[in-house]
Each structure stands twice: as C-alpha cells, then as structure tokens.
Write a structure and sequence with these properties.
The chain has 375 residues and is α/β, with parallel strands linked by helices. The chain folds into 2 domains: 182 residues, Rossmann fold, CATH 3.40.50.11820; 180 residues, 3-Layer(aba) Sandwich (Rossmann fold). Helix content is 32%, strand content 14%. It is built from 15 helices and 13 strands. The protein has a 7-stranded parallel beta sheet with strand order 3-2-1-4-5-6-7, sandwiched between helices. α3 links the parallel β5 and β6. α5 crosses α8 and α7 runs parallel beside α12. The longest helix has 13 residues. The protein is globular, with a radius of gyration of 20 Å. The protein starts with a strand and ends in a 25-residue tail after the last helix. The C terminus is likely disordered.
Amino acid sequence: MNIVYVAFRGHFSDSPRAIYEELVRRGVDATHTWLSAPHTRASFPADVATVEFGSPESIAALEAADLVVSNDHIPLDWEKRPGTTYLQTWHGTPLKRIHNDVLWAPEGRLAYLEHDIARWDHLLSPNPASTPRFRQAFGFQGPVHETGYPRNDVLSSPERDAVRARVRAELGIADGQTAVLYTPTWRDDLVFNKTGPRDFEFAIDIDDFSARLGDDHVLLLRLHNMVMDRLEVAEGSAVRDVCGHPDISELYLAADVMVTDYSSTMFDFAITGKPLLFLTYDLEYFQGELRGFYFDLAEVAPTPLLRTSAELVEALADLDAVMARSADRYARFRETFCSLEDGHATERVLDLISPAGTVPAGPVNTRGGDDSAHS
C-alpha cells in the first residue's frame, strides 16, 4: 500500500503526522511518502521519505497513491486514479468563515480549490459544532466523521508532562518562568495584497509586557504558516520566535497561557484547560469586512475579549482572578468544542482504514458517528 501525506503544503506536522506515526508504530505494511517544502525538509526525520511539494515527483506520488492523507487543500494538478482514497483531516474548528462562506477571496481561488474538494472521499470533524459548517462551506457530500483531531491526542497522553519538560528545556524556559504562547491568525489582505516583506502588525506592546511582568514571563510567538515570514523579532526582547517549531501541540504543552485572536488554536489549546486570553484589536474589521465568523466570539469565548495591549498585560498580571471569574464560560466552551478530544482520536481514525488499506465507502460508526444528526 502506498500512502502519501501532506500537511500545510510541505510540513511534517498536524493530524497527518499523528496518523503516520501511529501506522509506523503498529508496523503497518505500507510505503510512506511525505510531500515536503525546501524550507521544511530539514525538519523531517532522516528516515522519512520525502519528495518536494509541487515537483513532478510529488505529482507522480499522488497519482500512484492508494491512500492520500492531507490536512488542507492540495493545490496541485494531479489525476486521482480509481481505487485511491483521499482522507481529508482538515486543520481546525472554524470560527472564521471558510471556503464558500468567506466574505471575500481572490478571483478564481475558490473555483480552483473545488477541484481538490472533488477528490475527497472522507472528511474528519473535531466536534459536532463543526460538522454542518464544513459540509456547507465545502459543499462536501461524502461522509464526515466526528473523531476529534489526531494531532491533539498528545495533549491528553501519559507523555504530556515529559514533552512539556523537554520542549521548555529546548526553548530555554526556566521552571519559574511563565510561557505566554501568542498565536495570532493570518489576515487575508496581508497575504493576498502584500505591501512589503515585513508588514505583519504586532499587537502586543513588548516594552509594557516586559516592564509590567518582568523576566519571569516570556512570549512565544507562533505566527500562522501563511505569514510566518512577515515579521522580524528583535534580539534581546522578551519575544521568542517559535514559528519554526515543527509541532504546535508541543508548544501548547510547554506554554502556561495562550493569547490569540481568531485562530482555531483556541479550540485545541482549551483541551489543556490552561488559561486562554483573546486580544481582538481589529474585531469589527475582521468579523464584518475581512472574513466573517460562524458565531459571536464575544458570547462564546471562554474569557472576555481584550481590545488593547494594555488590557492584555493587565489580564496576564492578574491571571488567576480572570480565570476564576470565567470558570463557567470556560467549561461551556470545552464541552462544546473539546468533547471528542480524549486522546484516542487517532485510534478512531485508523478504525476507518480496513486491513486492505482503504477507507470504507460509507459512514463509519466512530465516536460521534457520521453527521446525519447534525446536518
């Protein structure tokens, strides 16, 4: 059986990585090939076979695959042969409108991506709230399986404390330091209407952050992969660039608190139960003009939305009180979006794969089942 894996157009990460590692651990008889990018090739283990994303070799690999596992659109021109199964894991619970539901997209982009959606055979959903939104946005008529995300299993695994200790040591974070993971999402206008190589807006006042919180706080910056090359980090500041870290789930474990805006990282980080804050300085523009939301973030978010850097720093300085006041909201958020994230999502996904190496043609009785009750 030939299996081809794609994550974010060339990364060794996310749910495809979790599925791959479990298949290898189980000793499944298969040839595994990853599509890598030139700037990510060094992050792949030496024993992982790769071909360059977009190269003729990558097209040949896709066209020879028995199973394709991807967490995003594969915007390449390839012919899916009869008998090939394409398992689309996707890469996050949607707050932001996606695909056909977006307020704006470059001309021709959505139509081009429709070619990839037409190849999908199965789609994973992380929770019941996401299932009908996926089906509507993608117009996907095949089975949608509510399994949770394999990438999140590590957050509930017995090894999570060891992973936390290892990653903090690698990043030079002392035991007494509070690691604040900042994960702002990307802005469509920044990506599709580029005005310069370094024009990402950094919304946190680092001088105020350092002056108020001191050396016992460090800010881990994780930009979205669409814009991670659009900001320079000054040496000697409290900011540490962790954009190149191969596995964001390890950063969730290493961190003590997350700050985000509209990124789907909020739903994954909430699995840990650790503090989660929101810096939403451009809420009206992002929600009303740029992308649009599926629900009212202010109503659903586990903690109150913060509009300025000063408000954020104040919340970080009094984090225990903020979280105590928000305990009920946080619990509701986790029940809505994290109910399937019990550390066994990969097992449920692999139950979709038969001994012959194919995915069954119809809905599978995974936890949450198919989406017939939610469509």
